[in-house]
Predict the structure of Phosphoribosylaminoimidazole-succinocarboxamide synthase.
Amino acid sequence: MSGFVHRPEPVQVPGLVHLHTGKVRDLYRNEAGDLVMVASDRISAYDWVLPTPIPDKGRILTQLSLWWFENLTDLVPHHVLSSDLPDGAPADWEGRTLVCRSLRMVPVECVARGYLAGSGLLEYERTRTVCGLALPEGLQDASELPAAIFTPATKAEVGEHDENVSYEEVARRVGVETAAQLRQTTLAVYARARDVARERGIVLADTKFEFGFAEGPDGEEELVLADEALTPDSSRFWPADTWQPGRPQPSFDKQYVRDWLSGPESGWDRDGEQPPPELPAEVVTRTRAKYAEAYRLLTGHPFE
Ligand code: ATP
Ligand code: MG
């Protein structure tokens, strides 16, 4: 089983049409036809949106994405038009709301991996490949790859896993030219972000981008970086000072949540029929602190 433990009711705001409730973000369209993205404090783990929010998580992710977007504009344009609160929006939307260009989204999750982890590690252990790309012998959990690789996936519905696909499959779906542009842009942005993060004490092991197309200033269709970017929800961040291949790394994201849920205290069976339980206050506090710490290290400013 999977999905929302409690599916939230969309907030009604005059002038905004509710489009979609994602795992984390709620999407609206404003009267100008732009997209209004509101990042909630929802957290998902093991394919469930948990019943307990992490206070400020949506604000931290929104502010961190904005920071990255602004630092990447020489590599790729981004989708944000404004972070002003739409008229009539609830005060709680402050800091977590972005007005964005409404893009024709490319239906590919553009993943870059510079280190071996997660599903990449599992595949490597079986076949010495990651998403079908051959890798040298001798790599271990959390090893740095000889060069970063583009490992695209297709987006799954809530409760399903994203599915890795080959580069050739991406080319079949979106065309060779767009596929090449996705790969090139994904790897260029990853390389920049990895270097920036490394200087600030974080290993950016891997990350996922979403792109869309819109008409650019010259009237031509341009590729635009969308969604969120380079946050703990879309990336694996490891503390650089304790990075050591050969074992799982501590991380800046949902680790406490996952550990608690899969441990004995939660009383929850991942493979059973029951939805996951509420998180204890301590897990909430520590998780919030991890998100805030990633923000502080990367941007150089404390959150709030
Ligand atoms: P998850 O990211 O956890 O897999 P999700 O993608 O369904 O779940 P959210 O991330 O909560 O949900 O919602 C954001 C949605 O908005 C995504 O479907 C994303 O593709 C879409 N999106 C992001 N930016 C734009 C944009 N500029 N124009 C149109 N759609 C966008
Ligand atoms: Mg998303």
